[in-house]
Amino acid sequence: MGIGFGLFYSSATTAGITALEPSRSSLAGGIAYMFQIAGGAVGLGVSTTIFTTWSERKLDSALAHSGPSLTDAQGDAAHGVLAGTDSGVRVLHQFPAEADRIVAVVRDAFVSGFNAAFRVDAALAFVGVAVAALYVGGRVQRRRIAPSEAKRAPARPKSSRDS
Questions:
Q1: How many other CB atoms sit within 10 Å of the CB of residue 10?
Q2: H helical segments located in 19-98
Q3: Is residue 36 part of a domain?
Q4: In a domain, 135, yes or no
Q5: Which domain does 73 fall in, by range?
Q6: Distance between CA atoms of residues 56 and 64, nearest Å
Q7: How far is C-alpha 104 from the geometric centre of its chain's CA atoms?
Q8: Which of 21, 47, 109, 145 could link 55 by a cystine bridge, Cβ 3.0 to 4.6 Å?
Q9: Overall domain count for the chain
Q10: Distance CA 83, CA 89 (A)
């Protein structure tokens, strides 16, 4: 991910800055940076929400189907361990006979939550690649020449196709 982000950010910033007039390049750089930071914050929030929701559901399901029922206190301990709280770990030590089973269930729920979040992230990345492949190479790069630039541009010789 680090290599991909590194390659993407520099290319996107360069494309954004060079697509505008030099007088607006610093504005373009600032806007690109703002969207990178905002996108990272939104992406982190969405991924965390997916992870938390999925892992909590997986943990509840696993606790409900884990053979002999765990008490409410043991279930709360499992949720505390999943959340990474110190109090959850302290409560877990109160159930030494069930600790290994609770930790195993929590680990499965944790990994399941990460898998769900990364699958959504991968799907969004593929959508981004598809949008870039379909639109960035064509519509974005075809910009009109401003009248001031047209006067400075050398005249193109006419070909037989222009008539």
A1: 10
A2: 25-64, 72-83, 86-92
A3: no
A4: yes
A5: 45-139
A6: 12
A7: 28
A8: 109
A9: 1
A10: 10
The burial of 25, by beta-carbon neighbours within 10 Å (0-12 exposed, 13-18 middle, 19 or more buried), is given as middle
User: Distances in Å between the alpha carbon of 12 and those of 16, 143, 152?
Assistant: 6, 17, 28
In a domain, 38, yes or no: no
CA 77 – CA 87 distance, rounded (Å): 8
Cβ burial of 5 (10 Å; 0-12, 13-18, 19+) is: exposed
Residue from 117, 111, 119, 95 nearest 59 by CA:
111
Pick 20 or 119 by higher pLDDT. Answer: 119
List % helix, strand, coil for the chain (3-state, nearest 5).
Answer: 80, 0, 20
Mean pLDDT of 29-40: 88
The model's pLDDT over 82-116, given as tens digits with 9 standing for 90+, comes to 887 787 777 777 777 777 877 888 889 999 999 99
The token pair at 53 is 């929701």
* Residue 85: strand, helix, or coil: coil
Tokens representing 114 are 């990460």
Q: Which amino acid does the sequence have at 28?
A: A
